[in-house]
Amino acid sequence: xxxxxxxxxxxxxxxxxxxxxxxxxxxxxxxxxxxxxxxxxxxxxxxxxxxxxxxxxxxxxxxxxxxxxxxxxxxxxxxxxxxxxxxxxxxxxxxxxxxxxxxxxxxxxxxxx
Amino acid sequence: xxxxxxxxxxxxxxxxxxxxxxxxxxxxxxxxxxxxxxxxxxxxxxxxxxxxxxxxxxxxxxxxxxxxxxxxxxxxxxxxxxxxxxxxxxxxxxxxxxxxxxxxxxxxxxxxx
Lengths: 113, 113
Prior knowledge:
The structure holds 2 protein chains of 2 kinds. By secondary structure, chain A is mainly beta.
């Protein structure tokens, strides 16, 4: 039972354009959502998060949108840069503590120069 | 933020043998987490390691296959025993951040032949 789904295994975007990565979840108990970025041969690094009481959180070029009624969140990267090429994991948490976090399978983003 | 190192970074092992992975954190932490990422899959939590107590294993993971040690507040080991090709994965350790985020080590890529 996949509680967190990233249905697009990969995404290719031109440099300077917007990248939109999508994530769906099924468990209504999730109250916090996170995005991680992973480069090859490195561990995932935390990128941005959003609480379930908000519908948008912005940090520089990165914005996360949450639609609770649709159980959907998205990560927008504007403008996209070649250095953004990585695997992006969506994660959902039902409380603090890593043992309560569920990860999606990841979306590989290619930003073409 | 926490800085986490793992050894080895990668290994190739024969089936039936075991591999022990080390995880070192640059600060004292209560809980450390061990994850597995099978090819093309999400990060799956194996167990939570608390110093001074037995590790707590997630459904589908057992101590006989994945024994864990946690001798102090900055170090943990995960052993993958009786290796089979299905154990070929990336193994990651992590610790909690200030809020809901986690910090990950660089991972150990295991290939079982």
